[in-house]
Every structure is written in structure tokens, then in C-alpha cells.
Recover the amino acids of this structure.
């Protein structure tokens, strides 16, 4: 009679898999933070430079620059919300599954 042998999972293999998962999550978070940073910076620079150009063209000192800053804040907030919204929904689904 033959003795059956089953594959043995070593602790190091399990730890390695969780480490890869943790590394993936940390990279995902870092990329999302980078995306948010570039989004806020790009929109702010774009609207402020646009306001500066309009102020130079119409000789209306700080009016368009200030308007550009306000619009940049509004647009940046909306774009960041669009980036973060899927994460919030994913977290909400995860909490609902835990409750069930």
C-alpha cells in the first residue's frame, strides 16, 4: 500500500504572499496619492496662469487670479472626489460583507 503525500505549505511562503499583497497595497496607495497631488497641482497652476493671463490682457490686477484660485479649488475638490469615490464604495462594500 502506497502512502499518499500531500504538499506542505511552509510559513515562509505564506508570509511572502502576504508581503507581496501588502507591497501591492502600499504601491496602490502611493500611486493614488501621487495622482491626487498632480491633479491638485495641475489644476491650480492652470487656473492661476489663466487668471494671470486674463489680468494682463484686461488690466484687472488680481480679479482673475483670485477667480482662478477659487475655481481651481472647486475643480480640484471635484476631481479628488472622483478619484477617492471608488475607494469609499469599495470600503463600504467590505464593511457590509463583514456585517453579514
Amino acid at each position: 500500500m502506497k502512502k499518499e503525500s500531500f504538499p506542505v505549505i511552509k510559513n515562509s511562503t505564506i508570509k511572502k504572499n502576504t508581503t507581496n499583497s501588502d507591497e501591492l497595497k502600499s504601491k496602490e496607495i502611493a500611486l493614488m496619492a501621487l495622482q491626487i497631488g498632480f491633479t491638485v497641482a495641475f489644476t491650480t497652476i492652470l487656473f492661476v496662469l489663466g487668471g494671470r493671463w486674463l489680468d494682463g490682457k484686461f488690466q484687472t490686477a488680481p480679479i482673475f487670479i483670485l477667480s482662478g484660485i477659487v475655481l481651481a479649488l472647486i475643480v480640484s475638490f471635484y476631481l479628488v472626489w472622483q478619484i477617492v469615490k471608488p475607494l469609499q464604495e469599495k470600503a463600504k462594500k467590505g464593511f457590509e460583507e463583514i456585517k453579514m
